[in-house]
């Protein structure tokens, strides 16, 4: 029996998402996939205290370092998962790509449009390096069902699309400030840069690129306590509602798309959603009801929603029985599995590929135009 190919990963940034990535690799046997197998070979973080969890759970680690270039210079690392603050994306991502390591990076792929362009230039200079952006929510099975419905064009002519990501943790005004509330580290996009690529993964993949945007941005919590309890400025946008015009590439007809990214959404712990309304049919999915695929077929003036409960199976089959629940950690693992397929066959068999670098550049165009729209109070046309 031939031994499975191993892809040796290094993680840069060992916080919340780094642990989620490592945990996914540790339970890789959960997936019924006989392709390449990822293994965690190296970790990097300036905060040495973050190493403990990895040391305790991954005794086979080859490299532990506070200098990310140690991972890049090692012949024992094939690919990198990088989860660092936005102001570090440009420098880190370009160094990773130029080192020849494959990269799965966190959004927004650069603190601003200039940084994003420089990252994409490095990708074009290194065509053999596979680079993708993290976005896991489309891999919920019920959302995969919605994607199949969209690809079959069961909506007729699109009337409207609504897509968004809502958090409520910042409703606690005593919550201490962190880097996502600082323009120098998070960037001027605020909540758009932090949450927006998730909302755009499916629309962009369907070819729904905005041609114009009108933005309503809110900085609700203008101050937050620092580590000493003193109130300091909270600089970034908490909530954003972007009203876009989009042209359907299938028929050239224009429709409205509303994109919402909110850190202050009462009652929404972590809710990602997409709704598509059309002349012949409509459909919606929300992680608030993660098993539910809702759709309707338009027939005359009477329409009614139908709800299907979708089981656990997603893009890559797993050992979990079809009747059981599917959650965020499963979606995250599915995303990594599809990145592994990118490394194996450039995604030729993927049912729904990871976010591409080009799609991250489209998001930067939208968010930059949204900033201008809010500043001027005008609708801004995109290229």
Describe this structure as you would to a colleague.
- The chain is α/β, with parallel strands linked by helices.
- It has 10 helices and 17 strands.
- The strands form 3 sheets. The protein has a 9-stranded mixed β-sheet with strand order 16-15-14-13-7-12-11-8-17. A 6-stranded parallel β-sheet has the order 3-2-1-4-5-6, sandwiched between helices.
- Strand 9 and strand 10 form a beta hairpin.
- Helix 8 (191-205) packs across helix 10.
- It is globular.
- The termini are far apart.
- The mean pLDDT is 95.
Entry keywords:
six-stranded parallel sheet; 10 helices; nine-stranded mixed sheet; 383 residues; globular; 2 domains; 30% helix; Rossmann fold; Dihydrodipicolinate Reductase, domain 2; alpha/beta; single chain
Q: How do you describe this structure in short?
A:
With 383 residues, the chain is an alpha/beta fold. It is built from 10 helices and 17 strands.
